[in-house]
Amino acid sequence: MNAAVIGGGYAGIAAAVTLAARGLPVTLYEAARTLGGRARRVDRAEAALDNGLHILIGAYRETLRLMRLVGADPDRLLLRMPFEWRIHGVLSLAAAALPAPLHLLGGLAGARGMSVSERLSAARFLATMRRARFRLDGDMSVASLLRRERQAERIVRFLWGPLCVAALNTAPGEASAQVFLNVLRDCVAAARDASDIMLPRTDLTALFPGPAAEWLRARGATILTGERVVGIGAAGEALSVRSAGSERRFDHVVCAVAPHQVASLLVAPELAGCARLIARFTYQPIHSVYLQYPGDTRLPAPMLGFDSPLAQWAFDRGALAGQGGLIGVVISARGGHEALSHDTLARRVAAALRQALGALPAPLWWQVIAEKRATYACTPGLQRPGNLTPLAGLALAGDYTAGDYPATMEAAVRSGVAAAHALIERRHRDATRRARSV
Ligand SMILES: Cc1cc2nc3c(=O)[nH]c(=O)nc-3n(C[C@H](O)[C@H](O)[C@H](O)COP(=O)(O)OP(=O)(O)OC[C@H]3O[C@@H](n4cnc5c(N)ncnc54)[C@H](O)[C@@H]3O)c2cc1C
Q1: Which atom of ligand 1 approaches the CA of 288 most closely?
Q2: Which domains does the chain have, with CATH numbers?
Q3: Ligand 1, atom 12: nearest CA belongs to which residue?
Q4: What residue's CA is closest to ligand 1, atom 51?
Q5: What is the pLDDT of residues 213-256, one digit of tens each?
Q6: Which of 47, 102, 269, 438 lies 20 to 30 angstroms, CA to CA, from 341?
Q7: Distance 140 CA to ligand 1 centre (A)
Q8: Is the CB of 412 under 6 A from ligand 1?
Q9: pLDDT at residue 331 tops 90
Q10: 10 Å Cβ neighbour count for 269?
Q11: DSSP class of 134
């Protein structure tokens, strides 16, 4: 038995590690030169950047487990902080040193920038959702749910709204309330440390894909970067995987490319249903604006929110990763900023930071990275395909397959692990059935 994994993003790497851990020889195909997919290092002349600034949370248990398994120590590679929600000059809320769920209620009680009635409004929402076990009878938009629960306008604007955009990369008016509640259930309403915020202290390739590739190679896996797969087909009991350089046969194939990349690989007639489901997806962008200031420039916190559509969150890469004076700013989801040239966008983001923070020197250089299809739009009732496909031996993995979470690293990793287990178990079942019938 051997296995191929197509796609070296977090899902594909998680699948490869899971298959190799079960003793299978694995070949990993990645079209790009760098592993990591939508969470990868981007080497620029001025500095090593990431294609996007990423936040992890304590609830990312599978990501943390696999990091540990491959020797990427989360305690060293991530800055872990108790949950803190800080919109500069507007609102700040920090988890209290109490067990869950009192940590958040205590945080609300001690929050700055919220009236008593706003705190009660947020606490009532959490209590009502907890009583309903974070389940809705029918999905709806986050905005509709917040209206139904009569949430105070400022709490929607500065807490639930930005939380929804940060987690689902979809505006509250379009975002799935059920997926939003899944995130609340597992992060802010679960064990205290599940809500911890974890910020990478290294680039996103070195965070997990790099150490995982080393771990895989040490177990005999073949990692083919710069190798694009152009076709997957049935070949008797096995599957054939065609790339520009070769055609090889595998017993198991995990297709772990992004949903907008998968259509050309799902051409077998058995896969028409999966392909149709994925073709209905729409996508949302994320823009990352890197501004290099003089080396001693610091933000008041490693991660800081702003009441500005042009600077939702800013990250101090000096404090986090030793890249002194480098500030990374995230703009999630669609918006007017998409129409701006990168230079204009960078200038306006720098102006927005200056307006919020006061004196800031002019940036020395800037770099904008626009991921136009950063994630699928996480809309109410969106149907997502499962891991197993009707083509024996082929499974799908990625942040977009059916699961509780929106498109995140954790969704990708869980999907990769689940796809690997599902394939092995299906083969096992088929073999047992055949043996019984003989
Ligand atoms: C800018 C940005 C910011 C984000 N912020 C966060 C965040 O803060 N927290 C969080 O949890 N998540 C965040 N996400 C989401 C997260 O990065 C993704 O959900 C996750 O990385 C998806 O992983 P994946 O493996 O499913 O897909 P991908 O990362 O897209 O991996 C697919 C891989 O397949 C490769 N490939 C495609 N076609 C082929 C082919 N034919 N042959 C071989 N290889 C192929 C691609 O090159 C790619 O490497 C963000 C995403 C972006 C873009």
Answers
A1: 1
A2: 3-68+202-281+382-437 (3.50.50.60), 83-195 (no CATH), 283-376 (3.90.660.10)
A3: 408
A4: 374
A5: 999 999 999 999 999 999 999 998 899 999 988 999 999 999 99
A6: 47
A7: 27
A8: yes
A9: yes
A10: 7
A11: T
